[in-house]
Write a structure and sequence with these properties.
Helices cover 2% and strands 60% of the residues. Strands 1, 2, 3, 4, 5, 8, 9, 10, 13 and 14 form a ten-stranded antiparallel β-sheet that branches. The chain has a two-stranded antiparallel ribbon with strand order 6-7. Strands 11-12 form a two-stranded antiparallel sheet. The protein is elongated, with a radius of gyration of 28 Å.
């Protein structure tokens, strides 16, 4: 099952005179739910088959806006939130006597959530170069510098309650998710902080062309 909501702008008011930066704050929603099993058709409705079904639901709510600072710099911040709902969770432990790792399945309703934030800034710089040649009149250049930031917390930390750990035979801590094999995955372990830069440029030439109506200038992308 998949459901989606069209993007809305909850703070925008048609009766307001003038624009505010929060008028462009928009959010959407996407919901997915799934229930699946792999089994021969002869045992499809057996209790064991129903017990082994993989099921869950996830909902994502992206929130973003766009505004301008210093007249020419466009800023686009965004927050992506996700929720996961499972009917089963898993616990793992290492048994020293048998030297094996055991997994227990718990029939419990578990809701998990994560979020990440990012922002990009870009602007445009224009340049024109003129020529006194027979056919080439002008070259127009557009430069677009971009910088972006993104951040995601470490959802493997104990305070979130999404991951467990045990000590293996080599005395090393093994971290595992309670939602292991979850049909939609879940919050990821490890913090992420990134900065990226970009610079693109385009050139257009204005070239003289002869036509039936006389001399005309045509723009050509270089």
């Amino acid at each position: 099952v998949a459901l989606s909501m069209n993007r809305i702008y909850p703070f925008k008011r048609s009766s307001r005179i003038g624009k505010r930066w929060y008028d462009q704050v928009g959010l959407g929603a996407n919901l997915r739910a799934s229930n699946s099993v792999i089994t021969p058709d002869t045992s499809l409705f057996e209790p064991t088959t129903i017990k082994n079904m993989r099921n869950g639901a996830t909902v994502s709510v992206p929130i973003s806006t766009t505004f301008t600072i210093l007249k020419y710099i466009h800023v686009t911040p965004s927050i992506n939130t996700n929720g996961y709902l499972y009917l089963k969770t898993y616990r793992e432990h290492y048994d020293k006597d048998s030297n094996k790792i055991y997994r227990d399945t718990l029939n419990e309703v578990k809701f998990l959530a994560d979020a990440s934030a990012s922002a990009t800034m870009n602007t445009m710089v224009y340049g024109d170069y003129y020529f006194k040649t027979k056919h080439l009149k002008q070259i127009h250049q557009t430069i677009t510098p971009t910088i972006g930031f993104s951040y995601k917390p470490d959802y493997g930390l104990p305070q979130y309650g999404y991951y467990g750990q045990y000590e293996d035979s080599l005395k090393k801590n093994v971290i595992y998710p309670y939602f292991k094999n979850g049909i939609f995955g879940g919050p990821s372990a490890g913090k992420s902080e990134t900065v990226n830069f970009g610079l693109s440029t385009t050139f257009e030439a204005k070239i003289k062309k002869n036509s039936d109506s006389g001399e005309v200038f045509k723009k050509v992308k270089l």
